[in-house]
């Protein structure tokens, strides 16, 4: 029996985040249809726990120190020649050295770009723009947001036929009716919440300051789900700013739908974002949203919710959150509108179908080219 195609996925890290969770969802959906090798450049593989037992997955480790580009690229190229995966899939800037290693092409390559770190929240570094322009010119590039699609075409100047916009998708039914929500913090008032990796670009500090401002006039509570390098600092900040007992830091939560079921308001305070998975989940759960105006957020929420998508100014963010806390009927109406949008636009089936088609097209076209080369070589020998 022919083995399933082997896909090598190279991540900067395999800790739980948007790109890692999307990969886990796709791998689980097609369990048995593909074999997967996962390589995390930082050696962290926390998100393996999100893969189902039916997924054929292995990990590849390789020592590749930072700021060692040329030796790394040569090493990666030797790996590609030796192991010959059917498809190389790289994720974001931290895996781009593998795209360089695959030029000239050793195996078919797909690059998925989900967004940028805090250092590029306002504008991209020119050297990174030029690096992507060169490394990805002959690869297929997938982006989940229209904002990133515009960047890939107009800033990186990639050929239009090389860029695909595939919006992220979720299991919307999972968030629709949850019978066992988590326990809310003690106290009174609406429960505000966010689900995010606790990294600088998520700017949870902005949310803490906004909740502090709201609590001066109106009771409210806060739940933060997620983990990351900023957790201890943010917990200390919350202890200093927020009413005692009015907040919870949950860490990573597997059944995240139970978190959304406890919330009255979803808040997204990021400096940089594209097509946020947590935003889609919150909308599917029927929550109103207060967010900074980053990435595709304003395009994603229902039209009625767009006045609460504001600039990075903390006063605007606090004011929007305060108004949402005060107006219960409006929260209900906006949540219902967001759920309707999520049901129509954010179902996972279309995402699964498009990625499956893309994987197979790249693999089959490579097989076809290899076969054509063999036939041409054989024909040349026969002619002689």
Q: Which characteristics define this entry?
A:
Rossmann fold, alpha/beta, 2 domains, globular, 384 residues, 15% strand, 13 helices
In short:
This protein is α/β, with parallel strands linked by helices and 384 residues long. It contains 13 helices and 13 strands.
Textual characterization of the structure:
With 384 residues, the protein is α/β, with parallel strands linked by helices. It has two domains: 6-169 and 347-383, 3-Layer(aba) Sandwich (Rossmann fold), CATH 3.40.50.2000; 172-345, Glycogen Phosphorylase B (Rossmann fold, 3-Layer(aba) Sandwich). It is built from 13 helices and 13 strands. It has helices at residues 18-29, 69-83, 96-101, 126-135, 146-154, 204-215, 231-241, 257-260, 277-284, 297-300, 314-326, 328-345, 348-383, and strands at residues 6-11, 35-40, 56-59, 87-91, 109-112, 140-143, 163-165, 191-195, 221-225, 247-251, 265-268, 289-292, 309-310. It has a seven-stranded parallel β-sheet, sandwiched between helices. Helix 6 crosses helix 11 (314-326) and helix 9 (277-284) crosses helix 12. The longest helix is centred in the last third of the chain and has 36 residues, at 348-383. 42% of the residues are buried. The mean pLDDT is 92.
């Amino acid at each position: 029996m022919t083995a399933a195609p082997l896909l090598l996925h190279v991540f900067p890290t395999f800790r739980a985040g948007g790109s890692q969770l999307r990969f886990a969802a796709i791998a689980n959906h097609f369990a048995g249809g593909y074999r997967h090798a996962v390589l995390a450049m930082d050696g962290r593989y926390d998100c393996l726990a999100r893969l189902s037992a039916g997924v054929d997955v292995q990990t590849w480790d390789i020592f590749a120190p930072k700021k060692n580009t040329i030796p790394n690229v040569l090493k990666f190229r030797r790996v590609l020649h030796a192991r010959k995966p059917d498809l190389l899939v790289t994720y974001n800037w931290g895996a781009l050295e593998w795209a360089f290693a695959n030029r000239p092409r050793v195996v078919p390559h797909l690059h998925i770009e989900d967004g940028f770190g805090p250092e590029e929240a306002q504008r991209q570094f020119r050297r990174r723009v030029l690096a992507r322009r060169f490394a990805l010119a002959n690869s297929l590039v997938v982006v989940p947001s229209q904002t990133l699609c515009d960047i890939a075409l107009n800033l990186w100047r990639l050929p239009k036929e090389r860029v695909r916009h595939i919006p992220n998708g979720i299991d919307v039914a999972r968030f629709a009716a949850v019978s066992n929500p988590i326990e809310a913090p003690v106290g009174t008032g609406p429960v505000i919440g966010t689900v995010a990796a606790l990294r600088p670009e998520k700017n949870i500090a902005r949310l803490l300051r906004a909740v502090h401002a709201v609590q001066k006039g109106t009771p409210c509570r806060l739940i933060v789900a997620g983990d990351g390098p900023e957790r201890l600092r943010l917990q200390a900040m919350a202890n200093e700013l927020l009413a005692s007992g009015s907040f919870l830091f949950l860490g990573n939560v597997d059944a995240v739908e139970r978190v959304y079921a406890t919330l009255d308001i979803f808040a997204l305070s990021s400096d940089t974002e594209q097509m946020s998975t947590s935003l889609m989940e919150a909308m599917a759960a029927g929550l109103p949203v207060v967010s900074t105006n980053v990435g595709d957020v304003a395009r994603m929420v229902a039209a009625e919710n767009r006045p609460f998508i504001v600039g990075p100014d903390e006063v605007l963010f606090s004011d929007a959150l305060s108004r949402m806390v005060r107006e219960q009927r409006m929260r209900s109406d906006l949540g219902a509108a967001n759920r309707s949008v999520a049901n129509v636009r954010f179902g996972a089936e279309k995402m699964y179908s498009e990625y499956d088609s893309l994987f197979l097209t790249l693999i089959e076209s490579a097989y076809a080219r290899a076969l054509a080369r063999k036939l041409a070589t054989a024909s040349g020998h026969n002619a002689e």
